[in-house]
Amino acid sequence: MSKDRNDRLRMWTVYDHPADMPDHFVARLWVLEREGAAPTTLALVSKDLEPLRDILRELGFHAIPRTPGDDPVIVEVWM
User: Fold this and answer.
1) H or E element at residue 57
2) Which tens digit of pLDDT belongs to each residue from 2-41?
3) How many domains, the chain?
4) Taking Cα atoms as reference points, which of 14, 12, 9, 20 lies closest to residue 73?
5) H or E stretch including 28?
6) CA 73 – CA 68 distance, rounded (Å)
7) Model confidence, pTM
8) Please, which residues have CB within 8 angstroms of residue 39's CB and are 6 or more apart in sequence?
């Protein structure tokens, strides 16, 4: 698991052409705190999915498949 300087767990959620960027795959950084998950302003954007996966893998994150209750545009989460 990856944590930031404030000891918060970081995770990237990968989206398949979300409404705000309908021409791209987007990976958005979230932080998990005691209060719950909070989005950050950091995002990675690509026309293709594999380059995002390559970057997240190089950063030391591991993919977790989406669950049936996830929003349909969520591809996976990386922790």
Assistant:
1) helix 49-58
2) 555 566 799 999 999 999 999 999 999 999 888 888 999 9
3) 1
4) 14
5) strand 25-33
6) 12
7) 0.88
8) 28, 29, 30
